[in-house]
Design goal:
Strand content: 5-15%
CATH architecture: Orthogonal Bundle
Largest sheet: 5 strands, mixed
Strand order of the largest sheet: 1-2-7-4-3
Radius of gyration: 24 Å
CATH topology: Cytochrome p450
CATH class: Mainly Alpha
Number of domains: 1
CATH superfamily: Cytochrome P450
Structural class: alpha+beta
Bound molecules: protoporphyrin IX containing FE
Helix content: 40-55%
Shape: globular
Number of strands: 9
Number of helices: 17
């Protein structure tokens, strides 16, 4: 019996040692609790707080283990920029979220579908085609203005009818942003009263808000196997299934409406045309139906909650900072005029407003740890050896609060983005969209949307908080403003307004 006990103890000590021992010449970090790693701290604090605590205690390059995997956290601005630009850090960490989707689409996991979670040739092909097609459709260019304008008109109407009322506006922005995306993807928009739009927004939001890369159930495939009915997994699975069913339904509807004719006016049409042509010419193409569905799903997941949360931060911060709001409105009145409406033509003539939008993004810091990367080969980082396949987290919170770059790191201060002469300036430490090869695919669209929404809503209304917000929800991947209600007051007489370029 003692031999068995000794054997079990030896095996346990060995497992304990192996799972908690840092590889040689690896960055410093906290003691590793076998099997759990640093996950307890991440579950107790929110993800960004846990990361900032690590950076404060161990420095700019920290290693920690989350459940089974070693991860390196980088918190120095220059180092973040160097690593983000280096292709050795351009792979994406494998995320369980995409496994759940791939299982639904293809009946198996780790299949490498889509853009966000893929690497190598698959990633290159899907990203290149998507970016090129969306650009052809006006993504990031002025030709998308009419689509954004339709959304704004609906929003302005909504606020005009509810002047003086206490409003919770969070969901409104999601509807507008999803509609802009939908217009590009499939070529049509929903009315804001359409229950299918509400449903779509709810599903995308549920996934985005519940998603935490370090949640044990979303990290270990075996947890999924042993506890297939865990709520967090079931919820994501259900939303994914519904979203994919919705995409399939709309795709079928689109086919019916176009009668199967070539359609280059939407992403869906352009993708299908390329597949059809490749088949006709008997050549291979990396474009397939499962990739198409995965890409569309990702455009919604990556593009809607991020942009609408930033808008929600914008109204919140403007309502909390009446002096900044007044200066933005003053600039809009001078450059655009009270009887005109802001358009993309005004973009380069509104430095204070532009600086304010950037400052909203810096303070809002909506993706505090970006989207995790992974090393594609062995690398040396400031003398440390980091093996291939190590997770890499870029601590964007640290960059957005770096006192070397920001005069008042914790204060809302649009002058951070202005030269003394009043010209717009973008410090290197401003990284809301990431950087390098994996930089946000939707950056240019998001910029146009933020500009249009901010300028129109500030030009047309004044905003004030209607009661004390202050309850911040726990941050998973996306950092929301506290829940708040606002009151909008119209600044102009509707009948005199026109939209001139
Ligand atoms: C304010 C809004 C947005 C913010 C703050 C944001 C931020 C980010 C960040 C930080 C990344 C990771 C970049 C990296 O690893 O270096 C990312 C990736 C991505 N974003 Fe965005 N994003 C926004 C809007 C959008 C929109 C509107 C779309 C699409 C329509 C989009 C699509 C994507 C995609 C597909 C990726 C993955 C890129 C890849 O892995 O190659 N994002 N975004």
């Amino acid at each position: 019996m003692w031999t068995t006990v000794a054997l079990v103890v030896t095996v346990l000590v060995f497992i304990f040692y192996k799972s908690s021992h840092r590889p040689s010449n690896f960055p410093p970090g906290p003691l590793v609790i076998p099997f759990l790693g640093h996950v307890v701290s991440i579950m107790i604090h929110s993800l960004p707080v846990a990361m900032m605590k690590l950076a404060t205690k161990y420095g700019n390059i920290v290693s920690f283990k989350s459940l089974g995997e070693w991860t390196v956290l980088i918190s120095d601005t220059e180092l973040m920029r160097t690593t983000m630009a280096d292709s050795a850090y351009a792979d994406r960490m494998q995320l369980m979220l995409f496994n759940i989707r791939d299982q639904i689409l293809l009946g198996k996991k780790w299949t490498q579908l889509g853009i966000i979670g893929t690497n190598g040739e698959v990633w290159k092909n899907q990203r290149r085609f998507t970016l090129r097609t969306l650009k052809d459709l006006g993504f990031g260019r002025r030709s998308i203005e009419p689509i954004i304008t339709s959304e704004l008109e609906e929003l302005v109407e909504y606020f005009t009818q509810r002047q003086g009322q206490k409003l919770n506006i969070a969901l409104l922005f999601n509807r507008s942003v999803v509609n802009v995306l939908w217009a590009m993807v499939i070529g049509k928009r929903f009315s804001h009263n359409d229950t299918r739009l509400h449903d779509l927004v709810d599903k995308v939001q549920n996934i985005a808000r519940s998603f935490n890369i370090f949640h044990p159930a979303l990290q270990f495939p075996w947890i999924h196997k042993v506890f297939p009915n865990l709520k967090v997994i079931k919820d994501i699975e259900r939303c994914m299934k519904d979203l994919l069913a919705f995409i399939e339904e709309e795709t079928a509807q689109h086919k019916k409406e176009t009668g199967g004719a070539d359609d280059l006016s939407s992403y869906l049409g352009a993708y299908q045309l390329e597949m059809k042509e490749a088949q006709r010419e008997g050549r291979e193409t990396p474009l397939t139906l499962p990739h198409l569905k995965a890409n569309i799903l990702e455009l919604f997941m990556a593009g809607s909650e991020t942009t609408s949360t930033t808008m929600s931060w914008a109204i919140y911060l403007m309502a909390c900072n009446p002096e900044v709001q007044r200066r933005v409105q003053e600039e809009l009145d001078q450059v655009v005029g009270r009887d005109n409406l802001p358009t993309f033509e005004h973009m380069d003539s509104l430095p204070y407003t532009t600086a304010t939008i950037y400052e909203v993004q810096r303070i809002g810091n909506i993706l505090p740890v970006g989207v995790p990367r992974q090393t594609s080969r062995d690398v040396t980082l400031q003398g440390y050896h980091i093996p291939k396949g190590t997770g890499v987290i870029l601590n964007l919170s640290a960059a957005h609060r770096d006192p070397k770059y920001w005069k008042y790191p914790d204060r809302f201060y649009p002058q951070h983005f202005l030269t003394p002469e009043g010209k717009v300036l973008k410090p290197d430490s401003f990284l809301p969209f990431g950087f390098g090869k994996r930089v946000c695919l939707g950056e240019s669209l998001a910029r146009l949307e933020l500009f249009s929404f901010m300028t129109t809503l500030m030009h047309r209304f004044s905003w004030r908080l209607s009661d004390d917000p202050r309850v911040f929800s726990k941050v998973n991947m996306i950092r929301m403003p506290p829940s708040y209600t606002v009151t909008a007051t119209s600044r102009t007489d509707d009948s005199t307004i026109t939209r001139k370029g």
